[in-house]
Give the backbone structure.
Amino acid sequence: MDDNGISRRGFLGRSAAVGLGVLAHPSFNGRVFGANDRLHWHHDHLLDVLHAGKDAYCEKPLSWSIEQGADMVKEVRKTDRIVQVGMQRRSSPMVRECKELIDQGKLGEINLVRAEWYWNVGVKPKPVITEKLDWTRFVGPAKPTPFEPVKFRYWRYFWGFSGGNMTDQGTHLIDVIQWFTGATQPVAAECYGAVYKLHPAETPDTFSTIFEYPKFMATWTLAYMNSFQNGWGIVFQGQKGTLELCEQGYRFYAEPWAPKTRWDRPEPTIEKLPGGLTQTPPHIKNFLECVRTRQQPNATIELGHQAVRTLHLANIAYHKKARAVLGADGVTVTT
């Protein structure tokens, strides 16, 4: 790490990674290369890795746009490379156990899913040693923008570098929703949000989105100005039962909900609260096993694209202030 907290190994743009010969250097004799977490670089980094004949572990969200994601899928499938997207819930034993409950029909037909994430955070950028920062390289393929410490430290909150928390946190939760329900893309999305607290952010710190799927609807709500029910959660409501997941574990409630008030809860039919549902080691282990066996990993490039594509659709709805409809081709969007 340098004095600005940047990993020298990870902070290389397309021209740097190729031009400096990092991927082709004789000392780099491994097959694995991790794309860093700066979203606006993912597309170019991944293509560089593929062209160098390496496997890749790519952080989520996969892409900065629907078009980029579609191109990444196409380019990966031109090769025999193993690519794992960092959606670690795919490898969580407890989350996979929840999927089995749904496959067993415990919930019946699922008609409503609610995803939520609540934290109370602030924007307090640390000083930046500008003489040790190559801002032009950091910006890279994004639209040129003047340097500001807040844009460097909180790049996720600026549209040129990110899809905001819509895509950053939403990828984790929407992936689980689509995985559990067998959906690959929504029909349409509507979204409203705003920056109420985290000024001078561009991406909303509070929003609510509705996704329309053929057989169910899903909502995705985030607020970074209040910590009620601190953290993430997903609730699947089916005609035979309800499944509630969070970082601590899961609870399943069979229908009907016996208490007559909101404040009283029945005893869960099943409750497992071991904590640590999103630990990363099982996901990395799965990736390394697939590098060895050449089998496809738990979070393939297609799954990574399908998850974030849904959220790009929501961001389009947010910007257009309209219902955004995703075409059957998975790329065309109309409002």
In short: Residues 1-20 have pLDDT under 50 and may be disordered. The domain at 14-88+282-305 is CATH 3.40.50.720 (Rossmann fold). The radius of gyration is 21 Å.
